[in-house]
């Protein structure tokens, strides 16, 4: 593990493996860490120089005062600026999919692959609203555990156990990241997302384990016109871990 100092002075942990000519940036999902990518690293490092990052308040990175997506993308950018050699291919899962999307809007990337993170947040706002009081109270850990156990449903038991063991559900970080979803209207969230993602020019792939429907695709392409939409049916929230060889091939195809 190594670390860099982010613009605000906090420490951001990362790891670099492989010596390929193309840099591959990996960003994990909420409550997880760079270790979530471990089953894929050997195969990916045969093709890329892989840079995996712990987001602020996750893994071995410092907690911070604010968890806005711009802030998370800036901290990822500090790692790339420190150790990157060439324009990276940026891959993110769940929250990490949003982070690499914001990063791609602000920096040159070879391409961006968003794994199972819907960019339209209105439906997620409705889901979170039902459990917000519990997330803000003592049942936080049980609620988060229940949510993410459900997300892992299609995975083999051993992989479920591995991810559960990695989970570090910091209430402060989770509430900070989800604060805009709690506090803004659906229309305000739509405006926020459009403003953050304006400027993505690189190839962009949205890979999902369930079909979000044609209305979502139309909306997404109104924000990112060149976006490709790809569904791996019945793969759930972790299509990359359920189908690791297929996922590695998909990433290599974007190189």
What does this structure look like?
This protein has 255 residues and is an alpha/beta fold. The protein has a single domain, classed as Alpha/Beta hydrolase fold, catalytic domain (Rossmann fold, 3-Layer(aba) Sandwich), CATH 3.40.50. It is 47% helix and 16% strand. It has eleven helices and eight strands. It has helices at residues 38-45, 69-83, 95-106, 122-135, 140-151, 157-166, 171-183, 186-197, 214-223, 239-242, 244-253, and strands spanning 2-5, 11-17, 23-27, 49-53, 89-93, 111-115, 204-208, 228-231. An eight-stranded mixed β-sheet has the order 1-2-4-3-5-6-7-8, with helices on both faces. Helix 2 packs across helix 3 (95-106) and helix 4 packs across helix 7. The radius of gyration is 17 Å and the shape is globular.
What is the compact description of this entry?
The chain has helices at residues 38-45, 69-83, 95-106, 122-135, 140-151, 157-166, 171-183, 186-197, 214-223, 239-242, 244-253; strands at residues 2-5, 11-17, 23-27, 49-53, 89-93, 111-115, 204-208, 228-231.
